Amino acid sequence: MNITFENVDKVSALLTLNIEKADYEEKVKTALKDFSKKASLPGFRPGKVPASLIQKRFGAEIKAEEINKLLSEEINKYIRENKINILAEPLPNEEKTPRMDFETQEDFTFAFDIALAPEFDAKLSKKDKLTYYDIKVDDTLIDQQVQSFCQRGGQHVKAESYEPRDMVKGMLSQLDAEGNTLEGGIQVEEAVMLPEYMKNDEEKAKFEGAKLGDVITINPAKAYNDSAVEVSSLLHISKEEAAEMKADFSFQISEIMRFEPAKPSQELYDQVLGKDVVKSEEEFRQFIANDIKKNFNTEAEYQFLQDLRAYIIKRIGEVEFPEAILKRFMKLRNADKGEEYVEDNFEKSLPELLWHLAKEQICDQLEVKVEHEDVLETAKAYTRIQFAQYGMMNLPEESVTNYAAEMLKNEQQAQGLVERTVENKLAAKAKEAVTLKMKEVTMEEFRKLTEKKD
Question: Which residue from 14, 17, 10 is spatially nearest to 91, judged by alpha carbons?
Fold first, then answer.
């Protein structure tokens, strides 16, 4: 077998393979022999089909299959041994590949277009200077989180008189034009309302200072700005009936319910964090501060990586890509989407491709390696963040691990977690490789900085 590699330009090459009969003959014989042991044709028992008939019926097909296997092996071997940095799978060059007849032909020539990665230097050193944002955790943020936990741990209690945001329950009765209860009119025995959310201030004001047993005259249509949806829900009638309902109603208050947030206490701490994780308000606030800081560090790491990306791409400058080959490859991989897809997405893909190549180079320089356990830890961290959003801070470690393991069974999620793990490790090592300027900022300042960069 003869293999030649010819550079067409800086970023593309032609790989030509000349395959002779001696290169594949033994492989084809072995394949035919193995096939004959299993072959079954009408008139013959399995494994008893004459070799001549096997050769006649399946010889060309098996020959083509074995040559293609050999071709794939030799291409991959050549690229690997010669350390050729390619951007996509080799694509057949039909112009330079002669027409083939596997029935009669013995020697074959195959030509492939190779997309080469552009050459550039993305390696990091102390000459590279980047800013790392240290986001401060202040008392205001801790107070907000404490208040949030108190809200989640709160409960409804009965009250004697109405205050804004209270929920009221009572009897609703339709009135006639004179203000008397309408005989045969609509009545709702346990109507529930949140007056604070009424759209009409005049109707809302009727509940100020109201007490248990008080009777208030309201107009549902006015209260909800003629919203048929809200009126029908309150009066238990159809939307069509609600649209025509303009009558006043009496409302006798039978119950006032008020939501009271929990107060910082051992009961709340145990409920939020688990039993005896913290034992005082000071420890509770410190735990919250540490948790906020972890989240801030995650955001700071992400922003550092984005800044590193922008810095490296700018430092590299303009690079040449084998666009014709890459477009062919994109079209091949998205055959169902047509030429328009390639035209719309190709240019957008180049910055991502350049960053991918730069990351590979930096990871190689800094010896960034990712193991399964690293990816599992990333999945567990993501799991904790997800559950924390719902106030579940004390999930058992076994449950976190099981949930994370399930995430990794999803191929798409797993790939995303691998990428995130690589980038986390890359950021950690990059901070040591460059000259880092630490800048303390508030969360508000950090938000403004990142919005400006976006």
Answer: 14
Query: What is the tens place of the pLDDT at every residue in 379-391?
Result: 998 898 888 777 6
How many Cβ atoms are within 10 Å of 424's Cβ, its own excluded? 20
Q: Scan for tokens 């076994």, then name that residue.
A: 398
Give the pLDDT confidence score for residue 454 in this predicted structure.
66
Is the sign of the CA dihedral 167, 173, 175, 180 positive or negative? negative
Whether 36 has a pLDDT exceeding 90, the answer reads no
Domains, the chain: 2-115 (3.30.70.1050), 129-146+269-453 (1.10.3120), 155-260 (3.10.50)
Spatial distance between the Cα atoms of 239 and 242, rounded to a whole number of angstroms? 5
DSSP element (H, E) containing 87: none
Q: In whole angstroms, what separates CA 295 from the centre of its chain?
A: 17
Q: Cβ neighbours of residue 200 under 8 Å, at least 6 residues apart? A: 222, 223, 224, 225
Residue 239 CB contacts under 8 Å (≥ 6 apart), including other chains: 228, 229, 232
Q: pTM of the prediction? A: 0.74
Residue 61 CB partners (closer than 8 Å, separation 6+): 102
Q: Give which of 330, 335, 297, 318 is closest to 431, Cα–Cα.
A: 297
Q: How far apart are CA 15 and CA 21, in angstroms?
A: 20
